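Lecture 7 notes: from sequence to structure.

We start with a single chain of 99 residues. Read the sequence below before looking at the structure.
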Amino acid sequence: MENSFRNEIEFDLEKILSCLVNTRVNIMHIKINQRKPALDGRESVLYAVKMSYLYRLVILEKLEINAILYEDNLIKRVGYIDGWNGIQEQLFNRLKQFL
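Now the structure, written as tokens:
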């Protein structure tokens, strides 16, 4: 499971989580032009997919279903998603400005 979010952990997991929270706040409260880092449209799609996969693993765990086969597929799919048009790399570069 940890491998699925290895890039985020290696970059700075707290910064990524803060960015996700800022994105939720901006959406829920219709805030724009905030100085806090938030996901743009393409980044939102990438993380919506990644969180969907994570959610599926949580459900399998709660149902006490062995998720080993799914986990292998998840790692492969997330590896593919992480490479989508350099979106994740662009996000990390943008977040470095806020470090």
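The mean pLDDT is 83. Keep this in mind for problem set 3.
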